[in-house]
Specification:
The chain is of the alpha+beta class and 465 residues long. It is built from twelve helices and ten strands.
Length: 465
């Protein structure tokens, strides 16, 4: 009887232990799900907040284009007003996106995302780069980076420092720095490193056929491209994709058309006759959308093997790439389940852009060419559709790898490092690793299919929300 009683107690203790572990696991699971929801809400809110500033800034620059035109509709053009307008447009090209960066931080922090110390330090270092490198000269008369207005780089660095001082919680993931190289290179492709680490042989078959067979050593890589920015009139963070261009107004609009635009924007009243008799033939600086950025989407189409799954065609007034935002937020969860102490990281990436349209002869058309007030709303978009979404510029380890490690690898080969991307390159250099991939593909390549959708580890999907 005593023996049975002892067995019952042991069984009861064992059952209670199991129940406690299940309870703790459930608590951990709930905490992880809750943190993921917070990260998603924070990332989406941050992306939308920054995109609103993009749209507002583009509208302001468009209105200033029209005010510039209005300044010409006088017998004697107001030269001081024209100079002030073009100076303000140059400043808005930087201050508007940076206001969006600040708004993104507030949105993320309001959704319980904490400061990312690594991203904060990275942007702090970049502000110092702007202050030192961008202000340097090739010679006494030639700047490396031409200032869009007098004293621009110091002001730009100061603005960025002011934002960084409060800490970065939502990292800008599609930064395009003036010092970044132009053109593609496989070593700047994050998916290459992920394919090596995960032995994703199909990636090589689908995107770089023959590389596994041809490659012999780091000497085989082509040179990485050099930076090739030829104009510095658009912010590096959440850039608007715009540029100044010198033209006469009569090359763009008839007197009737420009008068209608000015009056529609409530900047008039003005008549076509005022423009017809004055200064439309003067060459002036106007702000335009960059044609290489503002064009019909190539990544969102109804047809094609890798098309975004839309029902029908995208309407013209919404069928354009251009100004957009990609942000990345991180959150951590401490597990309370006994055992090895673990901290789970939750990552969420979101993309958004401003949308609007112009009306022409009763039709809605997408913004294009000469910037006019057009933007009415912001929407989340698939990350694949966002410009620079592959930059991963808020992944601090990735940025430091590109900046600090690649040059040494291309000169002397792989080296021991805690950097996971450097470790992937060390793995890649092993002939046995590449032979394993070749062997697998020799019998399994038929199973490799182009993905119709995808996801980023721990966060928002690349093809949709």
């Amino acid at each position: 009887m005593v023996r049975r009683s002892g067995q019952a107690i042991l069984f009861l203790l064992l059952a209670l232990t199991v129940l406690v572990f299940i309870l703790l696991l459930n608590v951990d699971l709930h905490r992880i799900i809750q943190r993921k929801d917070q990260a998603q809400n924070a990332g989406d809110a941050a992306a939308l907040a920054a995109a609103r500033w993009q749209g507002t800034t583009l509208n302001l620059i468009g209105e200033l284009n029209l005010m510039h035109a209005l300044a010409l509709a006088t017998a004697v053009p107001d030269e001081a007003a024209i100079s002030a307008i073009t100076n303000m447009q140059a400043r808005l090209s930087f201050t508007g996106p940076l206001a969006g960066l600040y708004a993104a931080q507030l949105a993320a922090k309001n959704n319980h995302i904490y400061v990312d110390e690594g991203m904060t330090q990275l942007l702090k270092e970049h502000a110092e780069t702007i202050r030192t490198q961008y202000t340097a000269n090739v010679d006494p008369d030639t700047e490396y980076f031409k200032e869009p207005w007098l004293g621009a780089w110091v002001e730009y660095a100061n603005m960025l420092d002011a934002i960084v001082a409060d800490g970065i919680a939502a990292g800008p993931d599609n930064m395009q720095l003036f010092t970044d190289p132009e053109g593609g290179h496989i070593l700047y492709t994050k998916e290459f490193y992920e394919a090596v680490t995960g032995k994703s042989w199909c990636w090589f078959y689908l995107f770089h056929q023959g590389l596994l067979e041809r490659y012999s050593s780091y000497h085989d890589w082509p040179p990485v491209p050099e930076p090739d920015a030829n104009q510095y009139t658009d912010c590096e963070i959440f850039g608007l994709g715009i540029m100044p261009f010198v033209s006469t107004l009569e090359m763009l609009y008839t007197p009737e058309a420009i008068a209608t635009l000015v009056n529609t924007a409530n900047l008039g009243p003005v008549t076509a006759e005022q423009f017809r008799t004055n200064h439309l033939d003067r060459a002036e600086t106007w702000y335009f959308y960059r044609p290489d950025r503002w064009s019909a989407w190539t990544r969102i189409k109804a047809e094609g093997e890798d098309a975004f799954p839309v029902a029908g065609n995208v309407r013209e007034e919404y069928d354009y790439a251009g100004a957009d935002v990609v942000v990345r937020v991180e959150a951590s969860v401490d597990r309370i389940t006994p055992g090895e102490r673990r901290e789970d990281k939750v990552v969420w990436t979101a993309a958004s852009k401003p949308f609007g349209y112009l009306e022409s002869e009763g039709e809605k058309v997408r913004p294009n060419g000469f910037i006019l007030p057009a933007f009415r709303a912001v929407r989340l978009i698939p990350m694949d559709a966002a410009s620079g979404s592959e930059n991963s510029s808020s992944d601090v380890e990735w940025v430091y790898h590109i900046k600090n490690h690649l040059k040494g690898y291309l000169e002397v080969g792989p080296h021991a490092s805690s950097c996971k991307y450097c470790q992937a390159l060390s793995t890649w250099e092993q002939a046995s690793f590449r032979r394993e991939g070749v062997s697998w593909l020799s019998t399994n390549s038929a199973s490799c299919k182009m993905p119709s959708s995808g996801g980023r580890h721990g966060g928002g999907t690349r093809r949709g929300h």
